[in-house]
Amino acid sequence: MNFDDEKIIELYNARSETAIEATQQRYGAYLTALARAVTGSEQDAEECVNDTYLRAWQSIPPACPLPLRPYLARITRNIALDRIDRTGAQKRAAGS
Predict the structure, then answer these.
(1) Which pTM does this prediction carry?
(2) Residue 11's closest CA among 61, 75, 71, 67?
(3) 40-83, pLDDT tens digit by residue?
(4) Domains (range + CATH), the chain
(5) What is the C-alpha separation between 32 and 50, in angstroms, rounded?
(6) What is the Cα–Cα distance from 64 to 41, expressed in whole angstroms?
(7) How far apart are CA 92 and CA 46, in angstroms?
């Protein structure tokens, strides 16, 4: 099961759960490496990638992002940066 971006978008548009599996198969390692580089944590990276799949599911349709890789990378990076901001805020709040 090797899908290209157009086929994956079609699966999202059809609301097929296979879209998530295809996205994970095609981009999972890349997104995990990206999230790990930002967060520095394997566990946080996995959570960020899972959140990416959810956000992609919620945003496609109406979005029709081609190519898909930079779209998913942007979502992953933003989620990872938000996680770092939250973690830093919690540490600052605990110190006061």
Answers:
(1) 0.88
(2) 61
(3) 999 999 999 999 999 999 999 999 999 999 999 999 999 999 99
(4) 5-95 (1.10.1740.10)
(5) 9
(6) 31
(7) 24
